[in-house]
Model the fold of this input.
Amino acid sequence: MTEAALRVPVGLGHSLREEVFRQGRHEYVALGLVASATLAGGETLLLRRIFTLPEDEYVDAPGHDGAWRGAAMIPAIEAAVDGGLGLVVFHAHAHDGPPRLSGDDRESAGRLLPMFAARVPGRPHGSVVLSRSHAAGLIAMPGAPAREMTLDVRWLGASIVDWRAGTEPRSSDSSLAFARQRLVVHDRGQLTLGGARVAVVGLGGGGSHVAQQLAHLGVGELILVDPDRVSRTDLHRLVGMMTLDVLLRQSKTRMIRRAIRRIGMGTRCETVTERIPGPVALAALARTDVIVGCVDNLHARADLQELAWRFLIPYVDVGVNIRAIKEPEPHGPRVAIGGNVLTLIPGGFCMWCSGFLSKEKLATELRGPDRSYFENREGEAQVVSLNGLVASQAVTEVLQLFTGFGGTGVGLSDLALDGRPGTQRGFRKLDGVRGTLEDWGAWRRPDCSFCNSTLAAGVVAWKTPR
Amino acid sequence: MTAETIEQAIRDLVAAYGDGVRTAHEGIRTLVRVSDVELPPGCQPSRTPMLIVFDRDQAKPIPHVQPEQLLANGRAPRSTSTQIVGGESWMQFSFNIPWAEGQGIIRFIAAARQRFAQDD
Done:
């Protein structure tokens, strides 16, 4: 059977499951609006929004587990037409193991899918049944007839929860190498790490730590992205760098790849020496499971977040900034050391929601009217131990995403900070003088125009103008 | 920029470029992709897809070409930046191209193309 993939943002997955697994006198359905893109798992549906049907729109229909008035679908269909999005009808069979579409499901999909395609041509449409561990459906990809498919489903939440259509990865024989981290990672988590593909963007003081720690953890593949070559001023903080690299003007990607090979955990490396968001870098990043950004400017952060939100890829961002205090107190600190570790789960708060990014901050970063006048921050103060502090936290965040050692829920409440509903953890601020990394919390703003336009947007769907 | 201006521009583009025109919407932006625009002799490549972004918050359309586009003099244009638009990489250039709502999109594109023949 053909396979496709479905990705679901944090919060939306919880709502979807609550609706379709609801107990009642009939089966419940949810209508999902989806974009699509070709990602690591092949053709991937990206869930943007769901519509539920009011109870009084369901009708009694002998021989059917769930039936509803066609007019009840109008709001969802109109939203799909407006947004140029595909429509997927979700329902559930409440058991473990792979679900099968019933004859009733096929007959219903046979009526609905051509109607959806007529209303929103050129987009994928489908009917999907969820069990408690797997998913299958009839999916009509653009330009192709509907086919029965099993689906890999990725639920984003406190961790990445994957429902795999195919066989689960088998245990590896490298258990001795990872024996001391088994208590945290578990065998299944180690297998997940071994199959994971993580991008590290920016291989300076932060990125050099991050990439090597990920290799030590046992991450299977790293995408190393940095256009620069090393110089003598990097030697004090790039972990793994040698004096010889300065003489050879070694590229940062090659230098880190060499360091990772020497660790010997079998991590594969793909190197990209193109600046974000060039087309090669963009294509490589779209295939990753998690992106770690260790970049030194807000514009690059905005680009990485856009990519992460479009394709529903968790994004961890780190940065350190050190400033001299103009008139320090006697015996007081002479520098202010700030920084951040942001764990951005698509569907939760973004950099715009939290105020980390703003149009004013982006404008301040420029000397002129647009991005081509970007002011390079090369030469700013950096210290290896401070880079290492935020980098280690970022790697721990990646570890949590893949192994769920701190929890695995897919609802926004599963990300709540210290039991404060509505306030999500994941916005950590560094006070480098005190040596603390405090979780400030943040929340998704319902009116965030970035989230509303970009979350699960995939690649734009071009239409022939009428 | 008004919705009527954007609709007229799309009609003009379809009249000039026919089947090579595609549109999409993202938030308040209308994206128009022209599949094949000829650039002045010497440009590398000599033909490019062009993306024109109509943003109701911006005074004029924003043209983009494919990244790595070179000028007729063989050099990379200055004052450019690569950006993500519609999930794809595009090169935006900050050439000062005159725009008046009444002058029409075709003249605007012609002026944009001509800037690739200049030296900066």
